[in-house]
Structures are given as C-alpha cells and as structure tokens.
C-alpha cells in the first residue's frame, strides 16, 4: 500500500515537472513504523531527503466576451418586460378576487375548484403581495 502511494506520488511529481512552474522543495522520511512521509515543511531531529519539484501554474483562461449587437434586447429589458407582465397579471387577479363572489380555480389537469371564502382571502393576500412586489419594482 505504501509503495503504491509512493509510486503514485512520484509519477505525479514527474508529470508536474513538464509544466511551467516555480520550484518547491519536498522533504521525505520514513518513520519507525516504516511509513513514508512527505511534507513541504522541514522535519526537525530526523534524517530526511529532499526532492525539488515544480509547482504547476494555473491554466491561462482566455476571456471570450461575446459582442452584443446594438439592436439585441438586453437581459435587463427582458426582466423589465417580465416584471411589467407580472404586475398586470397580479393587478388583474386582485381585481377579479375583489369583484366576484364565486371564483373557480382551474388546476394544471383542468380540474375546477370553487374557492371557499377562506381560500379567497388567502388568494387576495397573495395577489396584494405580488402587486406590491412587481408593481412597485416598476416605479
């Protein structure tokens, strides 16, 4: 197990020497139990050997900034449009909840449910919060 680790470590170090890098010193020693140790800090009071290895530099990242066409809609414009749409929908929901007594709610499967008075109050509170959120963001 220890020999496999040491072999893997040496292969790793050998591969690192092919990169552009600065040199660092690794200290190695074997303890009384036969376990090999590797460290960048010099051990005190024991025999050790050193290896100089090259620390790899991080890869260079090219910054490819896409050119934006002047006529292309910006993300901010799209978000503004979504906010305006949400404001209008929220205001319409609030108006319907306030003006009508019997309101049917249709779920994604097409099932209709008549809102109870308690459900209607909850939906009105939610619509008011959405109006506050979306419509005040426009101002």
TrEMBL record:
Domain DUF4124 span(s) in chain numbering: 25-64
InterPro entries: DUF4124
Pfam annotation, one family: DUF4124
The protein, known as: DUF4124 domain-containing protein
Species assigned in the record: Pseudoalteromonas ulvae
